[in-house]
Amino acid sequence: MSHKSPKDFFAPLAVGAPAPLREIPARPSRAIHFFDPSNPKMAAKVPAMVGTVDVLLGNLEDAVKADNKVAAREGLVEIAKNTDFGKTQLWTRINSLDSPWVLDDLVTLVTEIGDKLDVVMVPKVQGPEDIHYVDRLLAQLEAKGGVQKPILIHAILETARGVANVEEIALASPRMQGISLGPADLAADRKMKTTRVGGGHPGYLVRQDPVTGPDGGPDIHGTRAVFQQDLWHYTIAKMVDACAAAGIYPYYGPFGDITDVVAAEDQFRNAFLLGCVGTWSLHPKQIEIANRVFSPSVEDIKHARRVVAAMGDGTGAVMLDGKMEDDASLKQCLVLVDLAEELAAIDPKLKELYDAIEIED
Ligand code: GLV
Ligand code: MG
């Protein structure tokens, strides 16, 4: 018999560790802002960012030089101990499971600042066995450190094997909080030929059919519109399904071209429309974009509330502005209304905007 009893899923994996959660709380996480705790200039800015972003993430993995790995870990402990995070969540990205640093990352962070850490992001996850390893280790360390609430796990989807196993990864532990796309490592691992960090590529396109040329045949070399396609559509859609089926949250990942705020916004919006709840931010500029894009617009909420009001007990069908609304479209609207409520609870400006909405009949 290889399966464990369903009754055992919610038993702690170490004696004295907190009991696993039965549901992952829907805490707003529109922007996960990455900072390098070994960079004193960046670290000094962290306390002032509390309250301006949903998640602050102390990054220990890629982008931190090997020589700075210990300083980053210790810097994060220092920042966590000396900062009151209020409603802002504190996450970390640990080093990968095949690195010499990850064990010390987990031992130090969980025993020193375990009660302040909400989520541990695990990079380069290949399969459920990676989550099981971290799951057990977290339980042992929570027990050792007297941590009161279970630390959640977030996996980065950035290997071909990880994508193939994404459903099993999402279901691997009650600690699973969510999954982010890691387009840079994923591109490398899959041997995709883009060198960009996230975003599109001008070579990945479809072209309008040729119009008829002067000789009556197709004008192959004439002017034909091209439409850039989204390199990440398949992976994001697959990730969203895996997450939704498991009751956890999907995220876009890094968008490396900090200056191209327009394309970043488009990419984030595609992810939002497909079901993602947030994205990474690599620069304060991207926080503003993410907070806007991953919050339903006033127009969306106005429409959604109108449908909710018109649908009464939620059954049957009504016509609004010539469009059919029924039980299913009501559910679509409730996704937005519920999200707006969660966001308004932590974002006073958004609350004001949503509260001011008046619904017409
Ligand atoms: C993120 O870690 C990525 O590799 O894109
Ligand atoms: Mg990566």
Summary keywords:
361 residues, alpha/beta, TIM Barrel, eight-stranded parallel beta sheet, two-stranded antiparallel sheet, binds glyoxylic acid, binds magnesium ion
Question: How is this structure best described in words?
Answer:
Strand 3, helix 3 (102-113) and strand 4 form a beta-alpha-beta unit. This protein is 41% helix and 14% strand. It starts with 30 loop residues before the first strand and ends in a 6-residue tail after the last helix. The model has no long low-confidence stretch (mean pLDDT 96). The protein has 13 helices and 12 strands. Helix 3 runs parallel beside helix 4, helix 11 crosses helix 12 and helix 12 (327-344) packs across helix 13. It is of the alpha/beta class. The chain has an 8-stranded parallel sheet with strand order 9-6-5-4-3-2-1-10. It has a two-stranded antiparallel ribbon with strand order 7-8. The chain folds into 2 domains: 6-200 and 230-294, Phosphoenolpyruvate-binding domains (TIM Barrel, Alpha-Beta Barrel), CATH 3.20.20.60; 300-355, no CATH class. Bound molecules: glyoxylic acid (GLV) and magnesium ion (MG). Magnesium ion is lined by residues 62, 123, 158, 182, 184-185.
Coarse shape: globular
* Heterogens: glyoxylic acid, magnesium ion
**Poorly predicted ranges:** none
Q: Give the % helix.
A: 40-55%
Terminal Cα span: 59 Å
